[in-house]
Amino acid sequence: MTLDIGLSVSLHLDVENSLESTQTRSYSLNHAVFMLSQFSVTRMSGTSKRPSIIIYRSANCKSNHIVEPHKRDAPIFLCTRIQENEDPLRTEKAEKPCTDCTITWMQASLEYPDGSYANANTSLWLHHTFLVNTNRVDSVCGADSPGERFFASGNEREAADITVNGQVEPLWQWNNVGMLVELMNQGATEQTAFLTITYEYVPSFPAQWYKVNPVWLDIQSCNGSEAPAQANATFALSMQPPWTSNFTGRITSMIGHLHDGGTHIEVTKNNTVICNCVATYGQNPAYTDAANSSMMNMPGMPASSMQHISSISTCDNGTVNVGDQFSVNAYYNTSQYSPMLNTDGSLTPIMGISLFYVAVNETGSTPTGTTTGSSSTSTGSSAVATSTSAAVAVNARTVLFAGSMVGVVTAFFM
């Protein structure tokens, strides 16, 4: 089934009704691959029944072409990285195709138009993406955030499992959803790829389930997510001040995000560590740079440094009470693990993020412990794309960060 959402984004859903999850759960799941494509940079003039979607773009973008859905030969591109002093274009909401569904599991990936897997070994990275529910207020940053931040992924592509060991914790019913995407091309030529997000979901909102609140902890607090990196150093950065909870519930899942050079990220509750998300490097060839990548060709970069973060372990333990204070500590060792560099050899900024989900007002017994991340999409086997619509072209070596874009889209399933 294909849903055309606005001028510049089409959603492609491979739906298998009553698909049983490979994990032990007490309910049937639907499964969908949510494929984003066809980003335009201008707004359609006049009146249209189809809502328009605008992306943030820098002034040196070379095209103002409005891309019509499903035209593979349409010129698609990413701009070079946006400068801080550039004014973004407006965003417009896209009409949602459904309102009665509940997400239980999410995972992002990056694929080529033929469905094959794109990663560091092919010189193309999913640097990061995150989703916000623009109709809800963020638990941590409130009005300082464009909406409730509820999913994030870097190139490690760790899944966010909202449910735990077959118990029934749902996410919320979706409203309008905004997305930020940053892709990176280290190759010598332009590449074309799809960002995909795979979901498991159930229809409606089962009466016995609890609503889940996402909590986004960031070393930069509510001031963006990028912090300066340090070369050949061991260092840590912490979120200050901590976030104070105004609700009660049980933590169902914790995921973390670091950049290369990172070793682990801790979540603390009232100054006690409750989760340690550990980064693992180069678990398979997909996370080793291609021989012709820009990183491999940089002076002073040894071959042993060309492995990248391939998974970050997750946790599923803990409770939240009103007044509890939570923070996050990100640890880096750029002597042991090479940090990411711009094409001029300068250090790119780093991040330290933990996102956890709380089943609000649920206080029953809970499993405790940490689950090692498996980088389940690292072989490209779990996110199967079948779309034939246009994709996003990532320019070669303009900068290490090939582009940054923001569009408001909807992510609902029938």
Describe the structure.
The chain is mainly β and 414 residues long. It is 0% helix and 36% strand. It is built from no helices and 23 strands. Strands 11, 12, 14, 15, 16 and 19 form a six-stranded antiparallel sheet that branches. Strands 3, 4, 7, 9 and 22 form a five-stranded antiparallel sheet that branches. Strands 6-5-8-23 form a four-stranded antiparallel sheet, with no helix packed on it. The N terminus and C terminus are likely disordered.
Notable features of this structure?
six-stranded antiparallel beta sheet, 414 residues, globular, mainly beta, five-stranded antiparallel beta sheet
Number of strands: 23
Structural class: mainly beta
Overall pLDDT confidence: 65
Q: If you compute it from the alpha carbons, what radius of gyration comes out, rounded to the nearest whole angstrom?
A: 20 Å
User: What spatial form do the alpha-carbon principal axes imply?
Assistant: globular
Topology as a string of helices (H) and strands (E): EEEEEEEEEEEEEEEEEEEEEEE
State the end-to-end CA separation: 10 Å
Tally of helical runs = 0
User: How much helical structure, as a percent, in the residues?
Assistant: under 10%
Instruction: Show unreliable segments.
Output: 1-98, 165-172, 296-305, 366-414
Strand content: 35-45%
Q: How many structural domains are formed by the residues?
A: 1
Major pleated sheet: 6 strands, antiparallel
